[in-house]
Amino acid sequence: MDSAPDHSKDATRQLARLIIASRFEDLPESVRHEAKRTLLNWVGCAIGGSGHKTVNNAIAALLPFCGPGQASLFGRREHVDILHASLLNGISSHVFDFDDTHAATAIHPAAPVAPAILALAEHQPISGRDFINALVVGIETECRIGKAVTPSHYEAGWHITGTVGVFGSAAAAGRLLGLSEQQMCWALALAAAQPVGLQEMFGSMTKSFHPGQAAQNGLTAALLASKGFTSSEQPLEAKRGWFDVMSTKPNYSALTEESWEILNNSYKPFACGLVVHPVIDGCLQLRNAHRLTPDAIDRVDADVNPRVMMLTGIKEPASGLEGKFSVYHAAAVALVEGAAGERQFSDEAVRAQATAELRRRIFPSVDSAIGKVQARVTITLKNAKRLVAFVEHAVGSVKKPMSDAAIEQKVFGLADGILPSDQIRHVVDLCGRADQLDDAGEIARRSAKA
Amino acid sequence: MDSAPDHSKDATRQLARLIIASRFEDLPESVRHEAKRTLLNWVGCAIGGSGHKTVNNAIAALLPFCGPGQASLFGRREHVDILHASLLNGISSHVFDFDDTHAATAIHPAAPVAPAILALAEHQPISGRDFINALVVGIETECRIGKAVTPSHYEAGWHITGTVGVFGSAAAAGRLLGLSEQQMCWALALAAAQPVGLQEMFGSMTKSFHPGQAAQNGLTAALLASKGFTSSEQPLEAKRGWFDVMSTKPNYSALTEESWEILNNSYKPFACGLVVHPVIDGCLQLRNAHRLTPDAIDRVDADVNPRVMMLTGIKEPASGLEGKFSVYHAAAVALVEGAAGERQFSDEAVRAQATAELRRRIFPSVDSAIGKVQARVTITLKNAKRLVAFVEHAVGSVKKPMSDAAIEQKVFGLADGILPSDQIRHVVDLCGRADQLDDAGEIARRSAKA
User: Fold this and answer.
1) Chain A residues touching residue B205 (CB < 8 angstroms)
2) Residue B134's domain spans which residues?
3) DSSP for A9-31, written as a single string
């Protein structure tokens, strides 16, 4: 989106103007490319999470009330109305906490936006170009509003992906519905009236409910506005508007300054908390450079930031979930299997003999000189040779992004066992040329079980 | 609900216990009677609002995505899934701002609760006794939580009927679904994660969207919890829980003290916000006592509580809806037409010449010595005579309640022209003996157009 002068008295209208003026033609190539990476990563997460108990329970509760089968559920057979598809695919995509992250705001940008516009694209004809533009404008909208209220909003206890994500969904869906400037103001207001999510719900199924419900609420907001359902035209900036109620000292200039927040989006290569990613990265670097096998390894020493031992200090994980909180398991499984995807944090992976044996030869040491995004991994081989890797920025961060090929690999790993491999290949291909598709709905249709 | 000791560390669980232990057998007769008055008044509002543009626009936007015709829309022909019925009937019932009010919290208790459980009662067998108990427990839940966060929550800018109403819907629906104590905690947590409504949206269609969406969100919360969808078990009292995020200095004892908040529910004789009722009452008293005609009036001075000007300060309303937020219009139309029903807040009534002229001679003055339920109306006649009415409690308040017959009259007035009069009579009768019905769903079925 282009920049515009800051007028805090007219903030919503200015934002609405940027949204409705957005066009694929005006997107830099780097932005288009990043949008397709974001899309592909999200699609993999949505398929990968589709069999999770969280999704099963939500479907068991809501399926009897769903509307016509207008939209696909990623990785599943059911088809439901576009509102419930937004909710359920949004849940599915966040359930592993493996989706994209906008580090400056802590928003997971795709989860509230992508499911709403993918569902819409199954219901009405939407070209790939319009779809990619809507995805970008949705992400820009939520990340800009998120930046405007950072840090006070998150610090107050809100789960920003749900509370701010709803604006992204409303903006993206509203753009595709062709809302007028006034209707877009109303859509943003209807979004403002429906924040979803408190951090208190972290650790329960409700965490992934937040972005799903935000997707549904934003789509509802856009649909209502498109039929003349009126709302405030100053929902953000009014005296008792969203900024005032939900934040302190909002930074209005974040709304309209010239930047592409999607270029600051990042994707996780490993299916666990970011804190342990540098160690995994170091292990994989050494494994790949020296073609290491576990039986060649005598011991692994890792110098780590203190947070690593605070958050991932479990020595003998009893389950896949505990494995995500074990630097011992993370390092061992990365060296044994050459990966640290969702499969490497399954109950089976935690119990696998080779990994369990190597786990006892992992020796982390806290070093406060090691930064939060750093680690030093030293592997001593049985032949006494020592290999050292110092990780300055873990792979997957904005400074050292995952390659396109690595994201594809991640998606294959997530979808494996859920969809046939030729179908996964086809979905990956559709995402890679999403902006050239005549019918963006094809991405969603092909992501369901046949 | 019975009282229980206050433990702020266990607030949600205690509330959940009270909810799941509630039984019709334990309700005092006065509570049962008030519940039926609340129900009847709500049904009248839902039928009366059913043809409003707000409802039409919402249906136009959402009907293509609705599920099977499980539940009726009051006063209309369409049948939709129970979630959308909750939303749409909730909107319909609040669109005239003519529904019930719990003055201590400013919550409209029935709008978020009644549509959810009436829809549920069409979908599964629910006796009249269980239905009335659920209505009461829903209202107790929302009003108690509302009391606990009054005044800070409302003062922050939230529309409490939507933000707190969602708890009422979750509690009532959850009670009917037979949730366990843990599930009820989850349902309350899923409700806490989905507040709806900012006061900034007052004066637009979104105001009535708030209780409707709260009804839908609460029902969704209860349905999810019933299928094992987990959430926080301390959503209210946790460090970053709902009380902390949404209020300051919550009063925990309000949650469990022995009281029946439904006995403090009140029904409006006038079709606008309660805040302006004392002024209307004063105007009508003087008009009736002195047989005033508008051309005899030089000016009208009204000493009012500060909230009157905060909430109803629109000087020149451009529509009937804006007229509801104009103390100028409310006073003028009451003096011109001798009434302040829905008809007096139509677009035509706002444009009528005599009212528009008198509106410019209405002079409200804020006086902080005037209580929220009070007003002093001073009419200066063209012959210089001054007439004064001091209203201590407006008609329709708990201190000066509408009679059962007056509520029935109001319902007939609201439903007239929408349903045939024998059908209205039948619906009024069903509400009057709601607790004796074998099938509470009958109330909803009979309230739809044949």
Assistant:
1) 229-231
2) 8-267+408-445
3) GGHHHHHHHHHHH--GGGS-HHH
User: Is the separation of the CB atoms in A243 and A156 below 8 Å?
Assistant: no
Q: Which residues neighbour A265 within 8 Å (Cβ) at sequence distance 6 or greater?
A: A34, A37, A38, A100, A101, A102, A109, A139, A398
Residues A287 and A249 in one domain: no
| Chain A interface mutation, best of B63, B66, B91, B206, highest count of A Cβ atoms under 10 Å | B206
Phi, psi of B300 (to 5 degrees): -125, 120
User: Average pLDDT for consecutive 10-residue bins of chain B (450 residues)?
Assistant: 59 97 98 98 98 97 98 98 98 94 95 98 98 98 98 97 98 98 98 98 96 98 98 95 96 90 95 92 96 96 96 95 95 95 92 97 97 96 97 91 92 94 98 98 97
**Cα A105-A109-A112 angle, rounded to 5 deg:** 125
Domain count, chain B: 2
Please list, in sequence order, all residues whose beta carbon lies within 8 angstroms of the beta carbon of residue A336, skipping any fewer than 6 positions away.
A294, A352, A354, A355, A358
Residue B58 sits at the chain A interface (C-beta within 8 Å): yes
* Segment 183-222 of chain A within 8 Å of chain B by CB: 186, 189-190, 192-201, 204-206, 209-210, 213, 220
Which A residues 222-251 touch B at CB under 8 Å?
A: 223-224, 226-232, 234-235, 238-242, 244-245
Please check whether residues A147 and A245 belong to one and the same domain. yes
Domain CATH number, residue A430:
1.10.4100.10
pLDDT digits (tens, 9 = 90+) for A31-80: 999 999 999 999 999 999 999 999 999 999 999 999 999 999 999 999 99
Q: Residues A197-232: pLDDT tens digits?
A: 999 998 899 999 999 999 999 999 999 999 999 999
Q: Which residues of B touch A244 (CB under 8 A)?
A: 157
Lookup result for tokens 């904005």:
A398
Do B147 and B22 fall within a single domain?
yes
Q: Give chain B positions within 8 Å (CB) of A159.
A: 193
Q: Which chain B residues are within 8 Å of A189, Cβ to Cβ?
A: 200-201, 204, 206
d(CA B245, CA A441): 39
